[in-house]
Amino acid sequence: MQNHEIDYFIHGEEMQLVEIELDPQETAIAEAGSFMYMDDGIQMETIFGDGSAQSSSSGFMGKLWGAGKRLLTGESLFMTAFTHTGLGKARVAFASPYPGKIIPIDLSAYGSKIICQKDSFLCAAKGVSVGIEFQRKLGTGLFGGEGFIMQKLEGDGMAFCHAGGHIMKRTLQPGETLRVDTGCIVAYTQTIDYDIKFVGGIKNSIFGGEGLFFATLQGPGEVWLQTLPISRLASRILSYGSVGGRKEEGGILGGLGNLLDGDGM
Fold it and tell me: What is the domain partition of the chain in residue ranges?
């Protein structure tokens, strides 16, 4: 194997953490801000890029370009490496940023490459390359929304993604098509054909409330879906915090409810 071999344990139900067990000189990499705790003997180091062989062999300009592309996915230029420098075994843990599930993915079982949503990567064994995946089709690029710029995880080690709510894994047969809200896609294998389709129909487009486009995923391959995209959660929270509150209760009753709650004072 090119990547470090690691053992792991996932704890919790809705606010999960992944605990990675490292042998001496083994390393795990993680996005900034996901660290929770580590045993004595583990050394933390901030690195430029992802520390993979692909990144290391590309020279400074290659590292700069690779790290710069990460800015397009909303990530930092830097990642954090946790290396076990002591004896025996030691553990380091990373926590999920919001309610949901952590998905362990053995890249060697999926052709050494997985494509995932730009904010879903949590951590991985050292050697896994974290890059950027552009959708090549014009329609997907123009109307894909959250699916336009995605991350790609390459290597033969373990990687961990995080998603909101409950996670469903679907196996699509050759030619089988699944239509999905773009925000509900967590990850899919490289054999999946990803495209964007217009919802169609005037009433659906104007009054449907589901957006003008949805994603189509055509097999063969594996697809991971989430029930609660963070964008959907954030928009709902913002709508409750907007001026007027209690919109669903009507103007008079809503205002009365706000007054009774103390919101109208």
Answer: 7-228
Sort strands 42-48 and 7-11 into parallel, antiparallel or unpaired: unpaired
**What's the topology of domain 7-228?**
Double-stranded beta-helix (3.60.160)
Is the bond preceding 104 in cis, omega lying within 30 degrees of 0?
no
Q: Tell me the average confidence (pLDDT) per consecutive run of 10 residues in the chain, 265 residues long.
A: 83 91 94 91 85 57 58 68 94 91 94 89 90 63 55 92 93 95 90 82 49 82 92 77 52 47 47
Q: How far apart are CA 210 and CA 184, in angstroms?
A: 12
Tokens of 62: 């290659």
174 phi, psi to nearest 5 deg: -55, 125
Residue 208 contacts residue 237 (beta carbons within 8 Å): no
- Residue 204 is classified by DSSP as H
Alpha-carbon Rg for the chain in angstroms: 21
